[in-house]
């Protein structure tokens, strides 16, 4: 039993030596020549104007989160179909009922998000109009 823990310890030590060894080797081998080209703005080539903490549209994250939630739930349908296929012959209504409840909850969530307007990139303003 002690031999098993020794294998794990050797593995951890070898991993740490690999990590810190490659970092140290890179530190010795890389050139340290500051160049004006290296200090220019990254990728775009335009000079930086203003602060780095710029306000941006949060809608991207809301839509991405909604997509991930529904994508994960839809991915759960495939294993469900594979596991419960044999049960469809013995008790089809119970198995289909469970899945209909699951899909119904997804549809209610989708309807809620749709009615709320969270699927639109530009959300309509619901306050009084200023003409």
List the helices and strands and how they pair.
Layout: H1 2-29, H2 59-75, H3 77-84, H4 87-90, H5 92-116
Uncertain residue segments? none
Radius of gyration, in angstroms, nearest whole number: 28 Å
Helical content stands at 55-70%
| Shape category | flat
Instruction: Summarize the biggest pleated sheet.
Output: none
The whole-number mean of residue pLDDT values reads 79
Assembly annotation: single chain
Structure description:
The protein is an all-alpha fold. 0% of the residues are buried. The chain has 5 helices and no strands.
Give the tags.
131 residues, mainly alpha, 0% strand, flat
Brief rundown of the structure:
With 131 residues, the protein is mainly α.
